[in-house]
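Subject: sequence -> structure tokens, single chain

Hey, anyone have a minute? Need the predicted structure for the following. Not urgent.
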Amino acid sequence: MGVIKKQAFQSSVLIYAGTIIGFITTGLLVPNLLSKGEIGTIRLLMSYSAIFMSLGVFGFGTITIRFMPRFFDPIKKNYHGFLGLSMLMGFIGFLITCGVIYVIRPTIIQNNIDKSPQFAEFFFLIIPLTFFQVYYALFDTYNNALTRSSYGIFLRDFVQRIFLLVGILLLMFHFFDFRLYLYYYVSAICLPTILILIHIVRHDAFDVRINFDFLKKPMITSMASVGLFGLLNTFSFIAVMQIDSIMLNIYLDAAAVGIYTITFYFGTLVLIPAKALNKITPTLIARAYKEKNLDRVRDLYYKSTANLFLIGILILLGLCVNLENIFNIIPKSFEEGKYVILLIGGLNLVKMAGGSNDSIITFSSHYKTTTVLLVFLVLLIVIFNLIFIPIYGMAGAALASLLAVGCHNLAKFIFIRNKFGFNPYNYQYLLVLVFSGLIFLVIWIMPEIENFFLEIIVDSTITTLLFYLVIRYLPLGKEANTYILHIFSQISQVIRPKIK
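Reply:
Had a minute. Here:
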């Protein structure tokens, strides 16, 4: 396998392995061992620190992707201290975020001292979380630019989740109380930053001697322009994922955020296949643009849309038929968030149905449109949350995200169709939706099985078989079959003995 394909395959394996570990931790143990308020406290700390991180990075992730190759000196075999420049800008960004935190801290604590006292008590942990996440983002992007992307995924999606699993097990066996567990949790979040720094040093890539003579005015101007768009992109992207929890806490409390966090997690299971596929497709689209091969771009768009839609709707269908059984796995007290699972699952299906639309816009000459659309998405989420949370509570937060993402994806589709003439959708997508509804009705009228675990296995198996029979005879399903065969082909290349 080539470097890109090898990295993509390794990343896919790590993502799926990390997903299993994450399910054991977040899906099974956390809701049974922590109170709703404690879960909400952790989620709020992570949400605020993620937003501050997006500001502290200063758009330098985008600068790294676009400008780092220009810094390479083929004679000295170095990057003119690009890493040192990145770390300097990260430190300046972190200091600015500290100033913002200092200003807003009294208001946040005052608003939470009664309804979310644990969050108010541990608010100070946002500072170390922000610091380490800023530098992880910078180091990881730098490491990716050196074509070692799978290592960052190994740290965040595997090593970190192993540590989090160990932490919740220590809590389960009463080695930790919540306070110690929270400190351990924060340490586990910070650990990948240290490990990726060690990795960079070990590979002789830690060069922080900035060559200021190389930084001419035109270069600085271009970097500043790209960095501004990068800052808006990163902030908008992070805000989209975190702002619902923050606004839910403003209207309700940390306990509601705790229920939302766990049920939200089950809804995100729909999105897992996209993580693996999206490690490959953006690189291929960028290469197709470079070769001015729009037919290849269109082909990738159509295939990614079909593959992700079919896989996404199958997982969402699995969640629907097993919805009641989910609350046999987690405490019944979380059942208030039942509709969050469906709405967030629907949201992620909408994302999946968009295929590689983000990459098509981002890697084209219209890349600035991505920023405009992301800002538009953030505004929609805020507006819809203001409307629906007071009416529907946590389900309102999920509904707000679904409607906003739906509008966002529609805008991207219209833009791509008008600029490039691409339209991957046809009547077959509607047929799949109709038949999926019929499959749900078949499972719904089936007699219940007393053992919920056995019922999950039976219902999921029948659902998968019926769904396969539906898509097997549709041209749309051929793309999914090709994708599945591609995965098996990659696996066989790795595990079969090499014949000498």
